[in-house]
Specification:
The chain is mainly alpha-helical and about 260 residues long. It has helices spanning about 1-30, 45-50, 55-85, 90-100, 105-125, 130-150, 155-165, 170-200, 200-205, 215-225, 230-255. The longest helix has about 35 residues, at about 55-85.
Amino acid sequence: MNAMKRWLAVYAVAFYAFLHLPLLTLAVFSFNSSRFTVWEHFSLDWYRAIFRDPQIMEGTWNSIVIAVLSTAIATLIGTACAYGLWKRGSGVLTGALYLSLVTPEIVTGISLLALFQWAFRWLHWQLGLYTVVLAHVAFSIAFVVIVISARLRTVSPALEEAAMDLGANPWQAFLYVTLPALLPGIVAAALLALTVSFDDYVITSMVAGVDSETLPMVIYAMARRGASPVLNAISALITLIFGVLIVISERVRET
């Protein structure tokens, strides 16, 4: 038994090293003064270069706006959807949600682009920031519904019934009984949707207009032109910020 525990510990360490050593290496070289993977001395030049690049700043702002708007909309719709599935379960609708999670992003992006192009024939609109927001709402809702549905499984339907027996109507029972119990799940779902939206590249690149380039699109364009230490700095910041958000999301979800 002790030998098995030691091997499991070795396996766990090797697994986490395989996952996180590349990120750690990237973070270390983001502080390297050299443009190459040969350490010279500590420097913050590449982090300063991020804030001097107008393309990076514009892409970051677009990503923040898109992520915040799509997260707010997806959280609102997803919460209502999860509550509806909780009250009136449907295996078909639940299965459709999981289907959207396993569908390749390239397929989702192509289908959304085809939908927008078909609709724009009559609406005379063009691809832009709002089409990216709509696309992000479409794929974020499933994450929100799944997280909140897991939280709802810990809530007893008898609580709402008791509230209505005491004179509350269905809306009041939801607002004052069920919603407070769901708040940790809603916050966790929103943080997850925010992370997924900010990081998305494949779907975004298909439905974005010329004025709605996001940070992942900027990073990809820079990477195609050649390796740059600025990419190391950007990636290290994204990993740190969203790593913290994921940890917060898990802590909130478990409360």
